[in-house]
Design a protein that fits this description.
Layout (H helix, E strand, L loop, with lengths): L74 H7 L8 E5 L1 E2 L7 E2 L1 H13 L2 E4 L1 H6 L9 E8 L19 H11 L8 E3 L18 H10 L3 E2 L14 H19 L7 E3 L14 E4 L2 E4 L2 E7 L15 E5 L2 H13 L13 E5 L21 E5 L5
Parallel strand pairs: 1-5, 1-12, 2-3, 4-5, 5-6, 6-7, 8-11, 11-12, 13-14
Antiparallel strand pairs: 9-10
Amino acid sequence: MQRWIYLGLLLLLLAGCGSQSSAPTEVAAAQPSATKQPTTPTTAATATAAASATPAPPTATATPEPTATPAGLSDADLAALSPNEMGWVMVLEYHLIEEPNADYSRAPASFQQDLEWLYANNFYPITFRDLAAGHIDVPAGKSPVVLTFDDSSDGQFRYLSDGSVDPTSAMGMLLAFADAHPDFPAVATFFPLIEVDVPERVLFGQPELATQKLQKIVELGGEVGSHTYTHQRMDQADAEHIQWQLAFSNKELEERIGAGYKVTSLSLPLGIYPEDESLIHAGSSEGVDYAYAAAAEVAGGASPSPFSRNFDPYHIRRTQAVDSELEYWFGLFEERPDLKFVSDGDPDTLTVPSEETLPEEQRDLIGDSAPDGMTLRRYERVDQ
């Protein structure tokens, strides 16, 4: 297979706190800078200490109306679909959904264009916890994408006075898009805030409707994770306060959602980890326990496949939904579709091209056998 020359690095400097309408809620003015990831995803930093208790894997979120899949793909199917479950996965990171496009805001019209591009390029939304668990239940030939939303601003999910969802909010646009495209469900992962000094970012604003919104996200097959209680930076708090932030964030969200829902995903404010990373794995505060199975970084680009040796569920990379990042990654996957994770349609089978027909960037990253409960299938992929 002809080797491609990979695109060069792009440098993205995360902007500091701007105006209240364009910067995410912070507890401190300083903001770290981040550099775009290397061209090949590499292993993220290993946790500095073992977790005090190992959390159970996240419960897979059921995707609405799953597509039936044949018991196995024929040679003709493999040639036509070119599945590659060692491919890279985009985890898109949104904050404000409002005018104008800026470092921490995405205009509704631009968000609509993002959805249209994803659909046209055969992407299919899944939750963050399903990616972390390696539960990729999407139709054959489709590529998983995770839509994540930090800070719970009202532009992400807003109700109108008549009880309908605001069509200019992210949830309203997701629902309308799913209605027009039933094979693209309104599934996303939201990382809300519970107590901050910007009312519009406390559980999506509209306090009397906060519980209803959280329950609706889950009802649609989406996920609610933690972004801490007050957007506390993990490097500016001691172990006791970190555990309080995580335990009581989970407690508040789980009680509002009800029905035994468990929060298992964390988005670290500003992508900053505590010195003792075991604190984000599991802990307890005032008799309230918590356990996370996955954590989101603030940047880094496309994520390695969950079946790659380079995948670390506590350091899942994300692509910031700003023009420069989206232009880079959308353009890359258009030029190099061989790099995408492409599903075989069967969550219990791991289908991967032979090493010789894998992209060079993804070789030698899979073990000799599939994860427990899965069957490994290798095949010779033809040039795309």
